[in-house]
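Hey,

The postdoc asked me to send both predictions to you directly instead of through the lab channel. I've kept everything plain text so nothing gets mangled by the mail client. Protein one:
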Amino acid sequence: MTRSFTRTLLAPVLLAVAILPLALSASAAPVEGNHQGGSEEHRQQHEQRRQALFERAGIDEETRQAMEKARREHRKAVRELRQEHRQRMDEILGAEQRKALQAARQELREEQRTKRRETMQQRLTELVDSWELSDEEREALRKARETIYADMQALRERDIDSRQERREAMHELREEHHEVLAEILSDAQIEEMRTVLSRHDRPGNGHASRRDDGN
């Protein structure tokens, strides 16, 4: 089997296998963020951590209340500044200009996402080429890809109310997939894949600015 065919076959396979933790996190986040119960649970956990921190630092109740008041005032001031800024932008830009700017921003983000995907695929392809896998190993990776895709889809479709339950399900799935990969790849190879992805996913590697117009 030629190296060219190896590139064609393994690039999507390793991409699917390697991005599993990222893909699961991305698919789970919106569900958790939009689920009212999960959001409330998050707020409660955050408040518990804050109170534990105050206890450890020896902050008395009167000081805590003063800090909370200052925080509320700060949030109100920030909201007012944002509203004022949006109004000023509406005065500067016409409706067509705002529409064109939004479209341009979306196009830029899509271009940068595409560039990031292509860069990651290239790096993974180069990594796979360096392993010189056998035909049997390539076939095993192909089957692993199909299994991972099916499991990811099943997890997305599951009706999970609790943030903790989803986290546990994600962890269990990752462990199962690691075991599948460990039968095909060495620990060093799996770690190499993770290293490539961690470098690729660092801030500044092609991430588009959310506010290119100062909005």
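Protein two:
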Amino acid sequence: MSTTGTKSGAIGLVLARPPRLLGTEPFFMEFIAGIEQHLADWDLSLLLHVVSTQDAELAAYRRWAEHGLVEAAVVVNRLVHDERPAVLAAAGLPALLVGEPAPGFPAVRTDNTGPIGEAVGELRQLGHRRIARITGPGALLHTTERSAAFVAACEKAGATARLVEGDYSEEAGAKLTTRLLTGGEPPTAIIYDNDVMALAGLAAARELGIDVPGELSVVAWDDSTLCRLASPALTAMSVDVHQFGVLVAESVLELLDGGPVTERWSPIAHYVPRASTGPVPAPRA
């Protein structure tokens, strides 16, 4: 790949999320490391900008395009109603989408259906029939795709599905887990959309005197050191996040070269069983 035509030597990435979550959620740090490692081989750097709102994200793209601050942008966390492709096109800023593609933009895609089916299937093999999922924000496209796949997988497997929306935070994980476990017909297994909420849910179950995995099985989406060090260690949907970042960087380099961008898919998440999942508890006498 040749970078002869570049000016700023930077690729832009805007994260529209509360900064406090970045300090506790390992996913994006590993993802960014993978991008930066590969870009460094071509003397390119990653410009990371953290904002709190989507309006601020859109303003950043317009500013970057106007002042030539980046050569291209990497767009993550695709939304159900996503204004960003149109804004990027109007600004003339090349971009790579991470998630579902949009007309005129290359993308690194992710399978959000198969892994959910695998997780539900593993829990059903353990005998679980009441399975809940604590999701990320409903405005995110991958949240809606996973939720639809979760409901379909539960229906196919003869399990009852329950969905509650969280925001990836520790607070949401604890509060929503408590709500699920203290209501009528509590689930015997919960799948969380990130490791932070899963760890908070584990603590909430412990405070309620509910044994994991004796009475409740817990599964985290996105494996991490936190999952492996938890007590009990958390079963997780594990994906090579660093390699995900490398694949994104490879696509960005092709984009800058001006030729066709190879269609790539992120590494597939796989179920890694650990001590937080077990057979469904026997009915109480």
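Summary for protein two, as requested: Residues 184 and 245 are 42 Å apart (CA to CA).

Thanks,
C.
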